[in-house]
TrEMBL record:
Official protein name in the record: Bifunctional F420 biosynthesis protein FbiB
Residues making up the signal peptide according to the UniProt record: none
Coenzyme F420:L-glutamate ligase: annotated span: 1-258
Span of domain Coenzyme F420:L-glutamate ligase-like: 37-228
Pfam families: F420_ligase (PF01996), Nitroreductase (PF00881)
Amino acid sequence: MAPAYEQSAVPACEQSVVPAYEQSVVPAYEVRAVPGIPEVRPGDDLAKVIASAAPDLRDGDVLLVTSKIVSKAEGRIVAADSREAAVDAETVRVVARRGTLRIVENRQGLVMAAAGVDASNTEPGTVLLLPEAPDASARALRAGLARLLSVDVGVIVTDTFGRPWRNGLTDVAIGAAGVRVLDDLRGGTDAHGNPLSATVVALADELAAAGELVKGKAAGLPVAVVRGLAHVRDEGGGHGEGARQLIRPAADDMFRLGTSEAVREAVTQRRTVRSFTDEPVDPGAVRRAVAAAVTAPAPHHTTPWRFVLLESAESRTKLLDAMRDAWIADLRRDGKSEESIAKRIRRGDVLRNAPYLAVPCMVMDGAHTYGHARRDAAEREMFVVATGAGVQNFLVALAGEGLGSAWVSSTMFCRDVVREVLGLPGGWEPMGAVAVGHPAGVASPRAVREASAFVEVR
């Protein structure tokens, strides 16, 4: 008699159908849905429910369990007049927002739509939350099946995700036990002998997606079994490290935010950095920041920005020495003491200690001349504002490249000296200097500024 979970009416698929004489050399596996799973309720022993429906589980099988029934058994059903309120409670960080749709990081560390809060397949007025600790849920289920059936199986708790750049949904692993979640092939070679330097296969996600092919979304089949893939089992013999391994660390996540959120983050995270490491600055990153700078708005379709990039230590020292001498002369003319002068000069160390300097300049090519003091002054102010917008773009883009920066106004006080040392045209007006480098430390939290303090509504 066929096992309950292999009855002909149950969806099943095979990777390949091959003659018996080839089965020993051609990789193959089977994945079958498990029928007979009743409605799961809070407090149910889920291991006992599954063991009753699939008594012939074998060592080496991998069980794929939809998170909904895990959540129900664990009592993760909560009353909620509004699903949005439940999403708020489960949200740690908003990744992207488009209208009412929110992609968020939830308390389990998963980035997904609506924090995984589900209003389907649950009583009206309630919502279903994800298991609080999906890896722990998988370990408990695996241990329960071992106790009840004396089998060593792997367990994957699955949920449905959308994916960046791709239409459609697929099941992925959110909890795992007894399964190798990642298959790290780095250090090996491909069939042609080429080294593999970046290939890490998400085995648990591949298994979860395979299970969805037979479980379906509305077939009432929340559990599937994969057989024939012994190599995916955890080699240590224990529960393994769990699906938490699949969550990319923030430092490695190149796509941590949606577009509008990334823009706001870049603007608000741009900070004045005054201490840098010795790590060299990538000139390409600075040029990309310049490309962003020159998208700023400008009057009369002009391009008033120029950026002088001081990439050699010699050029930086020559400029800063000349500026220091000019500053000392100004301070002595002001009657400052030598002690006071020395103290003030030290303020320029942020530029001297930076591994890279940029000097933004304003050019007024295309400016209108009115022969009227008020209008001519306003014309210049337009160009100054446009230059400032370009500098801000530059600083924000540097932050996006992972570089710290500090805009210092000093070149504006000795423009003739700067032009002479750098060999700049007479119409170029230095508008400060930007120290650039890799931050030596983490910036302190920014003080909160309420927008209302800077707004007047008429």
